Amino acid sequence: MLINRRQFLYATGLLAAAPSIALAQVKDTYYEVLLRHTRWAETQYDPVAGRYRRTDFGFAVVLGNAVLLTRGTYDATLAGVEKDVLRQHTLATIKHYAASNVLAGGTEWGKTLFWDTTFQSYFVLAARLLWTELDAATRSNVEAIARGQADYTTSLGTGNDPRSGSWTPNGLAGGYRGDTKLEEMGVYAQSLAPGLAWHGDGPGWREAFGRWSRNEAGLPAADLANPSTVDGVPISVNTAANLHGTFIVENHGSFGPHYQSELWRTSGRNAIHFLLAGRPLPEVLIKQPNGELLWRTILATMSDAGEPLMPMVDDREHLYGRDVIPLAFRSTVLRDPMAAWAEAALASRLLAYQAHPPQYRLAKFSGEAKYEPEARAELAISYLLHELRPPVAPAPDFFARAALAIDHGAEPGLLAHQSAAAWAGTVTKPGFTKFAWQPAHDDWLFKISGSTPMLLPSAAVTGRNVVVYQGVRDGFDGTASLLAFADGFAGTATLPTGTVVCALPRPGRVDVHNLAMAGMSGLTGARTYTGAAGRVVVKAREAFRVDELTFPAVNARHVRMVGVRPHPTYGYSLFDFEVDGSRGVRTTASSFDTGYEPAKATDGDPATRWAVARAERGRADSWLAVDLGTSTKVGRARLRWETAAAGAYRIQTSNDGTTWTTVAEYPRPDLSTAGWLDVDGRAGFVARSSEPITVQGDTIILPPGVVEGYVRADLRSISSQPVPECPPRVRASTADGFLSLFNLSDTDVTGTVRLRGTRLYRGTQVTTSDGTEYALTLPAATARVEAPWFTAQGIPAGITAVVHDARRVTFRGGPARFTLTHRDGATLAIVLGRSERTVTMPGAQAFPFNDLALGRVTFPNSVLPPGMSDPAAAVDGSPQTAWTPGRNGRMVVDLGAVRRAKVSLKWTEGPVPPHTVTYSADGRTYGPATTARYVAVSTGWRPGQASLKSISVTEGDPVG
Q1: Reduced to 3 states, what is the DSSP secondary structure of residue 771?
Q2: Who's near 631: CB < 8 A, 6+ residues apart?
Q3: At the top level of its lineage, which domain of life is listed (predicted)?
Q4: Radius of gyration of the CA atoms of the chain, in A
Q5: FRET pair for 807, CA 20 to 30 Å: which of 32, 202, 332, 750?
Q6: Which band of pLDDT confidence, cut at 50, 70 and 90, is reported for residue 580?
């Protein structure tokens, strides 16, 4: 049944009563999207050859066709082709490519692991859906493909495929630095699944499938700590290292959520073969070693669209059609409520996304249509997964459950904070440096992907100091970072409220998505900016940008555009550069790419263009100049840009081609406002600076100094609040009551920070008539955040307050009477005499705790041995939970860095089982040395004995 118009409006957000589609509608949505996509799929049909094209595996559209032909209610009006015609095209294509596959005796395609086997998987599945309509020869060829591929892949053992060139899984060792082998191992497993599912267990097939599948998300420290078996094989025999120790995946030199999801993308492709064939799923598809911790990293970057945010990937953001299948697999096969929520969120946007130009496509915005056959096939598989395995109910409070603050380390270069209100990240990977922030997890608000700069220029980081705050240990989630550059420092703090605080040494830039995408929340075709100076509406550009600049007329022979800020990826490229009398005149440039010569910007042909040389794309001052032949009066310039549009440039004139005078500049601010700026009612900035915030088209320029970013707040009121007074080189903010501190220097700083109000922070402060003087000690090039644990109403000036932790305060300097209020609302009446007095707030916890094990990752994880409960219960800080080891159970806690460790264990009531504590620096070899990153507790546990309530690790200075 197709979705009616009202359901579509609900699904796409035009009727706010139902911001996302109901779970039962997801499958129907996929069917309708496939129908509409068929208009694109038919462009792949070659009427002369009588089949779909081979280019970019265009013939893989047959899987979507097969679903439409065998399921649902076909609608030729939506599809743009009659059902019988689609059937004819599909069957003819399957017949041809089944015969032309190398494994069936052909020569056109197939057998090559990268990437033919991915499309073989789709192809075999399409043939099986239409099996009764295929002739005997075609059936035989399809069977030969599935069997032959399984035999071929098995024959390779753990070696490389000689047909695939440099693509390799690196045996069973894998790899994780810069370019994970998770994807490559997944391809090896994927090539075996059709044979196993449709033809049973050939010689060595199942063993090979299990080896590659178990090792896809391999991490030795985790795998060696897990004695659980999957398909009868212990996880501890895994050998691959495809993940960083924080369960993050790098691909092509940066964090790639799209590739991190590859574990479940290949699992979805594999599972559907077994489900349709009526065979049991291999256990490894349901019990995936390290899968849940890998998924946690995805949740820590998730957007409101159910697609991960991609701060370090240039060409994978907003490929909605490619991101469905991992969610569909997790929500249907793994019965994951979080994935079910994300899938419904993504599905609710698909029809609106598909209607946006280029219409019908499922993987737009990358500029590469080659992903369309794959997206169509994966959407078809997602439909089938819903048909065969109805999904679990979506989780409520998704972002509260997904909340996580984590430092993935200097090598991956990502410090991330997912809160209930926003996502934020500090990116230090070369080429991607930025302070990224996405308020309300809005997939289409700020541009944070790839090399797009945000708040910081993409400069090389020479020093990185990071602090992560976790609720279980510190009482709140947050981060603080201080980055060093060759010419200075910059800092950022992220707060549990979703607010960010940035200490910027120079102006910061934020680019705003501005599209007209009907049905997509926020993409109405304009963005509204409001500040103290007024309001401006910036309309979306419907096509390539055209700049019309006028200026006082001057006489000149030469006119040029000289760049100031290039497109962050592609530099500069112009279809047209027009000044009075410039068509067809001599045109020169600082550089050009082959086929994009300077003259093509003045030839009058709207389809030709000039572009800078590839090697010059990062150069700011590239130029394009015209020689009018004689001195001419000019007073206007018209520039029609390609995607590589300048963020800023100048128009200059000259009479001799040597001495130039600037006559116009772009951009000219649409709005310049002091203090604060609201962006579309969705988010905003407060700048603690005497310089203004400016809006220039779809770019916001923020002044140097302290900048605070808020999610839907009263910015006018916030901007009027007083700014902390700091020692030189120190910057501070009290955004949302938290005290964020930054030392923007290479020397330690001690001094006093003057604050307004009666909030009390950890450390020593003396009250004044209107606030406090906070005693500051801040090491060189560091930042930190202090929570507002207490306020003191009615406290007089001259009282010293020493906040030891979130429970205990010492006062001196009385006599005085006042009320102490804890952040959680509890109050305490304080009567202070002339003597010092220490008070403890009843019921409060003494945050921060000096316990390095709290909130840390524990092993085993994802797959637990029989009788064992989750070891995370021993580090969750709750007195109500405990780890039950199971017979002879063993657990490991990862401290995150090599430290000197002192361990304390607490058990529940009952006989304490015999146990030992061992230590490891690498997660591979354990012994008695207490300098370690990994701490293991091994037991001789038997039923009736005590469980482990907590493992605490103290005295932990980093080593090395």
Answers
A1: strand
A2: 555, 556, 557, 655
A3: Bacteria
A4: 31
A5: 750
A6: confident
